């Protein structure tokens, strides 16, 4: 991966909503790490440090170095609970990974050459139907994102899930049907057409009743 994220955490033993509220008042985020053929472990993270990581899109789809009281393990971020109205993270879930076992993770879809696509140059409008997708692969093959090259797309063209160009070792899960549209270019609205322009010219030549 192009970026390495180190997440610092501490083990915790206190449970319950009251304990979680106390942690949040101290600027900490309660969390849990599970998987990897080990027992789940409750942890805490510094809220502001976690927020800085979350500013990077790659953080959501990368292998992370999680250090709990100086013991390191490879994990991926599996879930976040955010406050519905405030910029606060309420809880974080991490999953341990084994480099020899495949994992499932949702990764973003990046659309390249959109502004210069054939159909866009002709006035077409782009509709993104899918902006992230679930993949399965070995941790070493985990992509930060899936690339969709739109350079040759014309008005009316559609790229389906089955047409995605996946990196080596990466497969799609069955979370999305193969014929689901990922992106399409449809005709623009409100623009004058040649037929409309001719109609206007013809109207000017008529004699009012």
Automatic annotation (TrEMBL):
Keywords linked to the UniProt accession: Ribonucleoprotein, Ribosomal protein, RNA-binding, rRNA-binding
Source superkingdom: Bacteria
Chain coiled-coil ranges: none
UniProt domain Large ribosomal subunit protein bL25 beta: residue ranges: 102-187
Pfam family name, one: Ribosomal_TL5_C
Cellular component aspect of the GO annotation: cytosolic large ribosomal subunit
Segments passing through the bilayer: none
Gene Ontology process terms (BP): translation
GO molecular function: 5S rRNA binding; structural constituent of ribosome
Domain Large ribosomal subunit protein bL25 L25: 9-94
Complex and partners: Part of the 50S ribosomal subunit; part of the 5S rRNA/L5/L18/L25 subcomplex. Contacts the 5S rRNA. Binds to the 5S rRNA independently of L5 and L18.
Family to which the UniProt record says this protein belongs: Belongs to the bacterial ribosomal protein bL25 family. CTC subfamily.
UniProt function note: This is one of the proteins that binds to the 5S RNA in the ribosome where it forms part of the central protuberance.
Protein name: Large ribosomal subunit protein bL25
Protein's organism: Thiohalocapsa marina
Lineage of source species: Bacteria, Pseudomonadati, Pseudomonadota, Gammaproteobacteria, Chromatiales
Gene expressing this chain: rplY
């Amino acid at each position: 991966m192009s970026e390495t994220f180190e997440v610092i955490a501490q083990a915790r033993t206190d449970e319950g909503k009251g304990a979680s509220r106390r942690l949040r008042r101290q600027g900490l985020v309660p969390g849990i790490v599970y998987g990897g053929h080990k027992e789940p472990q409750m942890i805490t993270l510094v809220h502001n440090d976690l927020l800085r990581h979350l500013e990077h899109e790659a953080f959501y789809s990368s292998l992370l170095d999680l250090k709990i009281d100086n013991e390191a393990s490879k994990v991926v971020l599996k879930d976040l609970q955010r406050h519905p109205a405030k910029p606060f993270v309420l809880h974080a879930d991490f999953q341990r990974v084994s480099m020899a076992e495949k994992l499932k993770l949702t990764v973003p879809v990046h659309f390249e050459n959109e502004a210069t696509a054939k159909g866009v140059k002709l006035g077409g409008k782009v509709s993104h139907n899918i902006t992230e997708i679930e993949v399965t692969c070995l941790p070493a093959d985990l992509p930060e994102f899936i690339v969709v090259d739109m350079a040759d797309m014309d008005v009316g063209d559609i790229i389906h899930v089955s047409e995605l160009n996946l990196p080596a070792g990466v497969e799609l899960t069955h979370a999305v049907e193969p014929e689901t549209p990922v992106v399409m270019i449809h005709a623009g609205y409100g623009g004058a057409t040649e037929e409309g322009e001719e109609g206007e010219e013809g109207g000017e030549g008529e004699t009012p009743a």
